Amino acid sequence: MYGTGPRCATVSRRSPGTVGGLDIVIANAGIIQVGPAEALGAEGFQDAMDSVFNGALNTSLAALPHLRRSPAGGRLVLIGSVGGLLAVPHLLPYSCAKSAVAALADGLHAEEAPHGVSVTAVHPGLMRTGSHLHAFFGGDRRREYGWFSAVAGAPLLSMNAERAADRIVTALQRRRPRLVLTPAARLGATAHGLAPVTTTRLVSAAARVLPRDGSRTTVRGSAVEAGEQPPAPRLRAVLGALNERAADRFNQR
To answer: Which residue has the higher pLDDT, 66 or 239?
Structure first.
């Protein structure tokens, strides 16, 4: 899910007023950096792994002993991304960390089944959450912010966050092992699974139009928006209108 924030988990206690019982844990946290891999550097990859993967790993390891004791059968949900199923150029730290989350979720699903714990891997595509304001941009920051802020909220490519939350809750209730959100994400993940060579070539062709070079320092999206005059403001206003409304609704400013 293309969101940012501290490591966190959503927890459901067994009954009000009691301590020590867990039935449901949802790990959904991380950071996202946008730019060429060279510009983001090894530090960008390490930061993504520390937040995205280690956040999911530490939450899982801490919660599983309690989920195994749940009378209803514990449920663990790890939020990955379609970027973890299909590497996205200029989002490689995020994709690598989410790929690790995908492997963790699949492996834990197999290992925890004998203990009565279900593990659901959720792989969203673009979510309309206003995350472009809190993502970090490197390289040619103006142009990187320009394309990302436009695409992140584009109709047909992105999904309403409340609708996504409803789908996640349903998957959790049904103990589904995997959920991929948005038609575009399902198409990309399926295409890569069936024809990985062709898909990689198509993604490589698309990457040629992305910005190149630029600074190795990263800046938060809100700072780029305020001070660096990103290109194509009218186009971004049209394509990103739904995402801007989401930023207001979710207090992202």
So the answer is: 66
